[in-house]
Specification:
Elements (H helix, E strand, L loop, with lengths): L20 H10 L9 E5 H8 L8 H9 L2 E5 L2 E5 L2 E12 L4 H15 L3 E8 L2 E7 L8 E3 L6 H11 L8 H17 L4 H9 L3 H14 L4 H9 L9 H11 L10 H43 L5 H12 L2
């Protein structure tokens, strides 16, 4: 059984965790994604897609090859979240994927599941020695996946678990979905080396090189090695970070297309539009209220200017304005 309470943060996570239905259920509960150790059914992906998936969908040769060669799929008990127009079926699906490119293969799996079944899916994927948390994204047809950075060490697992602890324990789907997105995307930002990005953006700092030259001249010390290293650090720079790798993989998988209208996605978009309309209306009311107050104050200020020589009357008018 997996033990998540150790202090050895640098231990590879795969050494602490066995990919069994019991350990997966325990892990999901520990991460706060389920309230109890849920039972699950296990089916081969081929059977799951073609027997339980939407019959209207069409799969090309590459898709069929991937589906047929994928392993077992662990499907945990479905649960439901409210929307303003109904309910959103939600589920957690886990799988173990082989292949060299763990990120791309994980996204391939997620996109095929999204294509086959509607609703909202949370993914837990083992790809090689790394693990990933993913969710279905309601963005556009091609960009329908959000995936975490690799969970390679136990500290990676604890880090994303900490972020997931802020996911809204709400029956409202939009609240639940948004906080899940925030948790995963915020966790992914930790991969960015901002100091290095700033250094690259600033470019070669000749003042630094001049300072080295001056010190070298005064103290008769050679900094030629450091100067060479500094110049080389700016050669062939590619600002490749994890998010750009994910985007590149998603672009390569753009051939995976759904041939039907996803009613659940339309439902979510309708809710989003209602939320946006409500927010816009509230902001507009606040703006109008502020404008009315501003106009009222300007009129009163104009009136008060007439009584600069009568402080008592001015105080009385101020009290009236503040409702005192």
């Amino acid at each position: 059984m997996v033990n998540f309470n150790g202090d050895a943060d640098k231990i590879p996570f795969y050494e602490t965790f066995e990919f069994t239905r019991e350990d997966i259920a325990h892990l999901l509960q520990y991460m706060g994604l389920t309230n109890a150790q849920e039972s699950c059914q296990i089916e081969h992906m081929n059977k799951f897609i073609f027997l339980h998936g939407d019959e209207q969908e069409v799969y090309n040769k590459d898709e069929r090859n991937f589906i047929e060669n994928a392993g077992d799929v662990y499907i945990y008990k479905e649960f439901y979240k409210r929307t303003k127009r109904g309910v959103m079926p939600c589920r957690i699906i886990a799988t173990e994927i082989s292949g060299i490119n763990g990120i791309k293969n994980s996204l391939f799996f997620m996109k095929e599941i999204n294509k086959a079944i509607g609703g909202f899916t949370i993914f837990f994927i083992k790809a090689g020695v790394n693990y990933y948390i993913g969710i279905r994204a309601f963005k556009d047809v091609n960009d329908d996946c959000i995936i975490s950075k690799p969970i390679a060490l136990t500290e990676d697992f604890e880090e994303i678990t900490d972020k997931l602890s802020y996911v809204a324990d709400s029956d409202d789907f939009i609240d639940y979905y948004r906080t899940l997105v925030d948790a995963i995307e915020e966790n992914n930002l930790a991969l960015t080396d901002y100091d290095r990005q700033i250094e690259i953006k600033r470019g070669i700092q000749y003042s630094y090189l001049n300072m080295l030259s001056e010190i070298s001249h005064i103290y008769k010390v050679s900094f030629s090695g450091e100067i060479e290293r500094y110049y080389k650090s700016f050669e062939g720079i590619e600002e490749i970070n994890y998010l750009s790798i994910v985007k590149e993989c998603i672009a390569e998988l753009s051939f995976i297309k759904s041939f039907k209208a996803n009613t659940m996605e339309m439902l979510f978009e309708a809710d989003e539009m209602m939320e946006l309309a409500k927010k816009t209306e509230e902001e507009n009311e606040i703006f109008i209220g502020n404008q009315n107050e501003k106009n009222y104050n300007e009129e009163n200020d104009s009136d008060m200017m007439r009584y600069l020589d009568n402080p008592e009357l001015m105080i009385k008018m101020l009290k009236q304005r503040k409702g005192i």
